[in-house]
Design goal:
- This protein is an alpha+beta fold.
- Helices cover 54% and strands 9% of the residues.
- It has a single domain, classed as Arp2/3 complex 21 kDa subunit ARPC3.
- The protein contains 6 helices and 6 strands; from the N terminus they run βααββααααβββ.
- Helix 2 runs antiparallel to helix 3.
């Protein structure tokens, strides 16, 4: 989940969210250092995971229904593969590289957006990896490993939705606690808010 180009400069509350995500994500990432992959036999190369992340971000479907915008991205699938095939620390690094490469050359244009996106990507993958490695999965069949990984990723994504809605609400002046509709296929705006303008905050998966 990321915030698109054109986001206004953040307030103190937005900066606090960014710093909190970066600190929490960094702490979780550091705790994952040295842990082995769950399924070493998959043999998925590191660069292949980075490419899969980039491909999932490039394949975006924008849908507008009435006053709501929906963006569908299958970016959770590479996270599941990475957490299964790579050491979790490398899975976080691969996600950060894939998110940073498209922004090369545009870092100075949207520093708040880039800072939020990178801290959120790190936090989501590090949280999913931490949840997954906290489970007693030793000797579990692969079907259980896949299910546990997918569940951990979706839970981490849900926390990411809350952080993104907080930033969007603060930047646009709308209440954070408006009713939200969200599903694993994409993120949606609050039901009571109008569709965002091209220059406003948007979020996507």
């Amino acid at each position: 989940m990321t915030v698109s180009d054109g986001a206004p400069r953040g307030s103190r509350a937005v900066a606090l969210v960014i710093v909190s995500l970066a600190c929490a994500g960094g702490a979780l990432w550091a705790n994952l250092a040295g842990r082995p992959p769950l399924v070493p036999g998959l043999g998925l190369p590191f660069l292949a995971v980075v490419a899969a992340y980039g491909l999932s971000e490039a394949l975006v479907l924008h849908v507008q229904f009435r006053r709501e915008h929906h963006t569908i991205i299958l970016s959770e699938a590479p996270v599941v593969l990475a957490l299964l095939a790579l050491p979790p620390g490398l899975a976080v690094l691969a996600r950060l590289l894939a998110g940073l490469l498209p922004a090369v050359g545009r870092v100075g244009r949207h520093p708040v957006k880039l800072s939020f996106n990178m801290s959120l990507l790190m936090f989501e993958v590090a949280l999913a990896g931490s949840l997954l490695h906290a489970l007693p999965l030793g000797g579990a069949p692969r079907s259980v490993l896949w299910g546990a990984t997918a569940g951990s990723v979706l839970l981490a994504v849900g926390v990411g939705y809350l952080a993104t809605s907080a930033v969007i609400g603060r930047a646009s002046g709308s209440p954070v606690a408006r009713p939200m509709t969200a599903g694993p296929a994409g993120a949606r705006w609050p039901r009571s808010s109008p569709a965002p303008s091209p220059s406003g905050w948007r979020w996507r998966r």
